[in-house]
Design the sequence.
C-alpha cells in the first residue's frame, strides 16, 4: 500500500482520540479555573462577613458594653448566621480582642513612629514633654475623627472592671509596646517613682475620659463646646497636662 495513504489513514484513526484528549484537557482547565474563581469568591465573602462582624461588634460594644451585647445580637445586626461568629473568632472574648487589635495596632504604630522621630529629649524640658504628649494623644484623636465608635469603645473598656475585658486589654496593649512610659520617665528624673506614676496615671485618665466621649463637655458648656473635632481642642488639653506633669512636687499638709 502507498506510504502516503498509510500515513493519512493513521492520522485519520488518531484524530478522534486526539480530539477527545484535547477536549478532556480543555474541560479540566475550565474546571480548574472555575474552582479558583469559586475559592476567590468564598474568600471574598468570608472577608466581607468577618469585616461586618467586626464593624457591628465595635459599634454595639461601644454603645452597650461588652457584657451586655450577646453574640446573637451581633450576628443579627451584622446580617450573618450565628455560627459565623465562632467560625471567624472562636469566642466573644476573641472577638473583642480582634475589634481592639485592628485599630489599636494602628494607633500604637503611629505613637511609636512619632516617638522615633523625636531627635532628643531633655530632662525637665517642657518642649520634650509636649512632644511626648502629642505622640500619646494625637494618634488617638486622629482615630476619633474617622472611627469615633472605636475610641469611645477604647475609653469604656479601659475602665471596665470585668476581668475578661481587663485581660483582653492587657493582652492587646502588650502586643504593641511603644516605649512612651519609659520616655516620660526619663525626662522627669527629679520625681520619685510614686510621684511620676501617679502623674502619668492621671494623664492616661484624662485621655481615657476624653476618649469615652460622654458628652459632658457639651452639657457643662451649655452647648458651646463639643468633642466632634478633638484635634481642634488639643491645645487646651496639652496645656493642662503639661502643668500637671511639671507641677511642684507634692508635699503633705501638716496641721499645726
Sequence:
Amino acid at each position: 500500500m502507498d506510504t502516503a495513504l498509510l500515513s493519512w489513514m493513521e492520522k485519520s484513526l488518531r484524530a478522534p482520540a486526539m480530539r477527545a484528549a484535547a477536549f478532556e484537557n480543555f474541560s479540566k482547565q475550565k474546571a480548574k479555573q472555575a474552582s479558583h474563581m469559586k475559592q476567590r469568591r468564598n474568600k471574598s465573602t468570608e472577608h466581607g462577613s468577618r469585616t461586618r462582624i467586626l464593624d457591628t461588634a465595635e459599634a454595639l460594644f461601644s454603645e452597650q458594653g461588652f457584657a451586655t451585647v450577646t453574640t446573637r445580637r451581633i450576628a443579627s445586626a451584622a446580617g450573618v448566621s450565628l455560627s459565623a461568629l465562632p467560625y471567624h473568632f472562636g469566642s466573644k472574648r476573641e472577638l473583642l480582642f480582634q475589634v481592639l487589635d485592628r485599630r489599636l495596632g494602628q494607633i500604637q504604630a503611629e505613637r511609636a513612629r512619632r516617638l522615633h522621630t523625636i531627635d532628643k529629649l531633655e530632662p525637665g524640658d517642657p518642649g520634650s514633654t509636649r512632644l511626648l504628649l502629642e505622640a500619646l494623644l494625637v494618634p488617638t484623636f486622629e482615630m476619633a475623627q474617622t472611627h469615633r465608635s472605636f475610641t469611645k469603645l477604647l475609653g469604656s473598656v479601659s475602665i471596665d472592671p470585668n476581668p475578661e475585658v481587663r485581660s483582653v486589654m492587657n493582652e492587646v496593649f502588650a502586643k504593641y509596646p511603644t516605649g512612651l512610659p519609659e520616655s516620660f520617665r526619663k525626662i522627669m528624673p527629679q520625681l520619685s517613682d510614686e510621684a511620676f506614676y501617679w502623674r502619668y496615671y492621671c494623664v492616661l485618665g484624662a485621655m481615657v475620659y476624653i476618649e469615652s466621649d460622654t458628652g459632658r463637655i457639651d452639657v457643662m458648656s451649655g452647648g458651646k463646646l463639643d468633642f466632634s473635632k478633638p484635634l481642634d481642642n488639643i491645645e487646651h488639653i496639652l496645656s493642662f497636662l503639661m502643668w500637671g506633669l511639671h507641677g511642684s512636687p507634692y508635699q503633705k499638709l501638716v496641721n499645726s
Remarks:
- The domain at 92-246 is CATH 1.10.357 (Tetracycline Repressor; domain 2).
- The chain has two domains: 34-90, 92-246.
- Residues 40-44 have pLDDT under 50 and may be disordered.
